[in-house]
Amino acid sequence: MMSGEFIAFMGIALVAVIGGVLLLNLSNVMHMMVALVFTFVSIAGIYVLLSAEFVAAVQILIYAGAITIIMLFGIMLTRHEDTSEAPGSSWRKFAVFLGVLGFAAVLYFGIYNLDLPQMENTLHEKNTMQIGEALYSKFVIPFELTSVLLLVALIGSIMLAKKDDEKEGDKE
Amino acid sequence: MELEQLLDFKWSIMTPEFIILGVATLLSILDLFMPKSMDRKILGWIGVAGIAAATVSLAGFIDEPVTSILFDTFRLDSFAKAFKFILLIGSLFVLLLAISFEKKDGLAEFAGEFYYLFLTALLGAMFMASSGDLITLFIGLELLTISSWVLVGVTKRNKKSNESAMKYVINGGISTAITLFGLSYIYGLTGTTNIKDMSGTLMTMGGSQNQLYLLAIAFFMTLVGLSFKLATAPFHMWAPDVYEGAPTPVTAFLSIVSKTAGFVIIVRIFVSIFGSVPATGAQDALPMLLHLQDYIGFLAGATMIIGNVIALRQRNIKRMFAYSSIAHAGYILVAFTSMSYFTFDAIWFYLLAYLFMNVGAFAIIQLVGAKAGSDDISAYAGLYRRAPILAVTFAVLILSLAGIPGTAGFIGKLNIFMGAFATEPAHYVLASILIATSVVSYFYYFGIMTQMFFRPAADDSKFNIPVALLVVLIGSVVGTIALGILPNIAFDFLHDNFMQFKDFLQ
Predict the structure, then answer these.
(1) Angle at the Cα of A153 (from B468 to B226), degrees rounded to 5?
(2) Max CA-CA distance within chain A?
(3) Does some domain include residue B410?
(4) Which of residues 59-118 of B touch A (CB under 8 A)?
(5) Would you indicate the residue range of the signal peptide (chain A) (predicted)?
(6) In angstroms, rounded to a whole number, what is the distance separating the alpha carbons of residues B118 and B137?
(7) Chain A nearest CA to B21, separation (Å)
(8) Could you list the residue range(s) of the whole structural domain that residue B353 is in?
């Protein structure tokens, strides 16, 4: 069952996982960001394999593009130590490793020969249009609520980050 | 879908939400154009008016049959109505607390942003109460969570507040990721985000062993993720630090409104999805929720024990109330575990009672804390000599939190206790833990009362209570005693208007 799709998936998935692991293990912030970009781009690749081209494009534009750039700005504009702190004790590392391994095993048992009924669908035809139609008709309430959510995030971050001019305000 | 079809829906049932959203928008614009030197408290009063208007309009829909808009992405059923009342009344009281908030260091009062972020948090909680679709539920949850992150860090010159906001962001982010992971499995197995369709698909699926296994994983992931929100053990670690560092009104908001919303979403998701899946392949098997209820029971037991025992050692009153609120979440989980005929009633009543007694207690904590400049328990020494009425009020609220007969807390606990016996098999262990930990809680609750009544006062200065705080105190004491002596007011209201929540799944 070594179809081309399977090989592509394995390659992309491997890059995504390696990117994630490197992100956690590298000590230089810039290197971490590069690892993160690898993960983001390979996730976009998985979306392409699932013939969700619109989501893939958005993934690259928003995550690999905008979010990474903004994080880089954040890193470069603030004063920081380039390297992270020394890792914790080896006991703790071992316990975490066991936990991760256990979780992986539990999930592996769940999915290794799972058969979900295959259904014919038309999601790949005019993918973008279908998303737009669903978003603006069926899911218009959560969509509008998301705009409130973004507004809250915007106001909140400005409020927390801006400098207080209490004293100047008093003088006026 | 055509425009006429969209307009055909009965959008008017969203009036309470529209009011809150409108007032939040109005406040943000007013804040922008108001002169800088002007007092921002007026924004708080407009917010109070908005919440009151939303409550009134919700009361207008009380006889409305189940209405749903756009495939259940918004639905108004009796469950939604009943819990939205708690959310709105709780927010009303907490906002009054916030208006009278004064701190000695840093900002004298909250910036204007506080009030509209508060309203958007409430909006998120209200959407969590009335939706039958996972996407809306999740976005409501996020709206509430992100707004509360900002609220916790609102006094940004206070280092403790910053620290607690950071902790809350990290813990909240992790819990969101875990919840979403669990929900994505349920979505993957059913292919829909509509809760009603999900339960229909799962019921007829028959379920191979593999799918049930995945569903159980989803159950645990979702439970763990949402447990962070409720601050139940062992996922409670963030609560004491966050409660201590946040400004007192925000602490009250987290322990009342945010917790209520957490229970609402847990009940909605678990009862409707996992309550209908047969736990084994056979059609007549027990639902998965009952099959796995021992694990929820374990969480409930651990939460009650850990919350109450660690509270014994606290010297800071806000930390003590954080642990006390963890313990109370444990009591409510007992009701959720037992899944008896009275479960919904018991949870609703307990949350209502908890609202009254806790908001009053936080009002006094805020008052005394601002006066003494510290939240240490010794600030309460000799409170009876300094302000007898205030001390007696606090005593009534504490007695209710401890669950002494004659108060709302007692009736709430009694309901949960009876519910635990009403099922087959009865939950004797949980019921006895409930009693034992309640007795443990007497020690720390009565410790505060000893300070108030039997210790000499450090200074004799009097308190001057702001009007808004006075309203909160009177409301909470009246509510606590009225529900304690005449609990049937609440139960009749519940039974007359909400028909036992029979329309929950329709």
Answers:
(1) 80
(2) 76
(3) yes
(4) 69-71, 73-74, 107, 111, 113, 116-117
(5) none
(6) 19
(7) 9
(8) 292-506
Query: Is residue B419 included in any domain, yes or no?
Result: yes
What stretch of H or E contains A57?
helix A53-58
Q: How far apart are CA B47 and CA B109, in angstroms?
A: 16
Residue B283 resides in a domain: no
B28 part of a folded domain: no
Integer CA distances (angstroms), B124 to A152, B88, B306, B440, in order: 11, 12, 30, 36
> DSSP class of residue B280?
S
Per-residue pLDDT tens for B424-482?
A: 777 888 889 988 999 999 988 888 888 888 888 777 777 778 888 889 999 999 999 88
Q: Best of A108, A137, A152 to disrupt the B interface by mutation (most B CBs within 10 Å)?
A: A152
The first and second tokens of residue A88, run together, are 């914790």
Judge whether B146 is closer than 8 Å to chain A, CB to CB: yes
DSSP B312-324: TT--BHHHHHHHH
* Rounded percentage of chain B residues whose pLDDT exceeds 90: 26
Cα distance between residue B228 and residue B239, in whole Å: 9
Nearest-angstrom CA–CA distance, B491 and B499 = 11
pTM: 0.90
Span B85-118, pLDDT tens digits: 999 999 999 999 888 887 654 455 567 888 889 9
What does the pLDDT look like over B119-130, one tens digit per residue?
999 999 999 998
Q: Which ipTM did the prediction report?
A: 0.86
DSSP state of A137: I
Q: Which two tokens mark B77? A: 């059923």
- How many folded domains does chain B comprise? 1
How far apart CA B114 and CA B43 sit, in angstroms, is 9
All residues of chain A having their beta carbon less than 8 Å from the beta carbon of residue B70 are 137-141
Place of tokens 């939604």: B80
